Amino acid sequence: MQFSDFGLDPRLMSTVEHLGFSAPTEIQQHAIPAAMKGHDLIASSKTGSGKTLAFLLPAMQRLSKNRALSKRDPRVVILTPTRELAKQVFTQLRMFTSGSQFKAVLILGGENFNDQVKVLEKDPHFIVATPGRLADHLKQGHFYLNGLELLILDEADRMLDLGFADELSLINKAADHRKRQTLLFSATLDHAQVNEFALALLNKPKRIAIDAGHTEHKDIKKRFYLCDHLDHKQQLLEHFLKEENIQQLIIFTATRSDTERLSQVLNELGHDTVALSGELNQSQRNQIMESFSKGQHKILVTTDLASRGLDLVNVSHVINFDMPKHTEEFVHRIGRTGRAGSSGDAISFVGPKDWLSLKNVEGFLQQKITFDIVDGLKAKFKGLKPKKPKVANKAKPSTKKNVAAKAKPRKIVKKSFVGTDAGEMPVLRKKVGLQEREDNEET
Ligand code: AMP
Predict the structure, then answer these.
(1) Residue 55 domain-assigned?
(2) pLDDT value at position 418?
């Protein structure tokens, strides 16, 4: 199949040709014709599969072919869970709107509210936004959605996981008319709240399941290394920085403070490193992402803040310094490399505190994970044994044998699980839960 088979407007086709893509990706092949026919869609597609273009092309086509329902209201609203992803979608959208009569704006939390009011007053055709801030403007009557023609929810599962159900419902209600088309994209369709939402928002949707979220990305080589403690992880990291042919690298840590600490250590060791964490204000975050995506730094250390959607074509390696807390984040993290057909390396460090997460990832990927070893850096840690379920046996009289069994000391392996990884203190882990929404989104 070719892009020319879609019957796109010639101006759109010339932009696609300019982008130099030889053929539509699988999600594009399915989603573009269905969306161009006016169907609502619920689509799953793995990260980096070209889904942005899968919704931007039908959106642009619709606007260039159909008359607007309203002169003032936005015609297309695209919602994403994170500011970074919104910016990336906006950049792709601008390639199509610049030089056209269509105005596109980006509305993100953390940026000046009054400036956004002025921008909204100019009656843009497209709004790309994070849901919290857009809902605030809507509540205050800075724009209306009676004329909205297309509502696009990118990474709907993530938006719902981040707690934006109310904001999404508000936006949906404000644009509740039968001419509206809705396209919902989600990493997985196997998500109860997404399905519930789909029922409420979508009208007889076509279901497109290209790749379940857990499908392995063939172009990404995954390696796992057992680690004893923080120092061991750092030694392994230094080894890979020396031995691997790294173009650009993203390192994921468990917490913001780990991100700060590790980037400081790496800079002290002479590696050009930047840290991206939710503590930074929006313009600092923008600046870091921009300089990293331009290749001005070799290493980016971050939490799951940068795990989704970001399209960074020169990232040859991803290192999970700590395994992710939420299993599906593993797929999103490693999807930062191996973008659009190029290959990538994903290296994961697995210490005692990462073990549970590793087992969950194993179940999620539906494959047995084996460990690689670096000569001279082999871990003593060999994994944790699954806990035996407690058998209630109150009636059993205490014999010499079972009293002795009770008195038996615990295995050392289990003891080391309770916090030898300095820098990953349990208290810090707990904080992550509280920080998470702040890390990933605006308010
Ligand atoms: P996305 O999944 O939308 O983040 O896209 C991932 C990457 O794939 C981006 O760099 C896109 O520019 C690129 N891309 C989108 N469509 C195609 C295509 N048909 N052929 C090759 N690359 C593409």
Answers:
(1) yes
(2) 29
pLDDT at 419: 29
CATH number at residue 345: 3.40.50.300
Q: Left, alpha or beta for 220 (phi > 0: left; psi -120 to 50: alpha)? A: beta
Report the separation in Å between the CA atom of 50 and the middle of ligand 1, taken as the mean of its atom positions. 4
Q: Are residues 57 and 159 in the same domain?
A: yes
Which of 53-57, 153-157, 291-295 shows the lowest mean pLDDT across its residues? 291-295
The best mutation among 52, 95, 183 to test binding of ligand 1, ranked by most ligand atoms within 8 Å of the C-beta, falls on 52
Instruction: Give the pLDDT of residue 413.
Output: 34
Q: Are strands 344-350 and 315-320 parallel, antiparallel or unpaired?
A: parallel
> Would you call 200 exposed, middle or buried from its count of C-beta atoms within 10 A (0-12, 13-18, 19+)?
exposed
Residue nearest to atom 16 of ligand 1 (CA): 50
CA Rg value for the chain:
24
Amino acid at 356: L
Distance from residue 48's CA to the centre of ligand 1 (Å): 6
Measured from the Cα of 49, ligand 1's closest atom is 2
Ligand 1 site residues, Cβ closer than 6 angstroms: 21, 24-25, 28, 48-53, 311, 339-340
Q: Could you give the number of structural domains in the chain?
A: 3
Range of the domain at 308: 220-365
- Name the percent of the chain in helix, strand, coil, to the closest 5: 45, 15, 40
The CA 336 to ligand 1 mean position distance, Å, reads 13
> 300-331 pLDDT, tens per residue?
999 877 666 566 778 899 999 999 988 778 88
pLDDT value of position 390 = 62
Look up the pTM and report it.
0.60
Contact 248, 314 (CB under 8 A): yes
Domain presence at residue 385: no
Q: Residue 51 Cα, ligand 1 centroid: separation in angstroms? A: 7
Lookup: tokens for 418: 């309770």
pLDDT at 61: 96
Given phi > 0 = left and psi -120 to 50 = alpha, else beta, which region is 429? alpha
Compute, in angstroms, the gap from residue 25 CA to the centroid of ligand 1. 8
Task: Check the CA dihedral 47-259-232-432 and report its sign.
Answer: negative
Q: Which of 198-202, 381-385, 406-410 has the lowest mean pLDDT?
A: 406-410
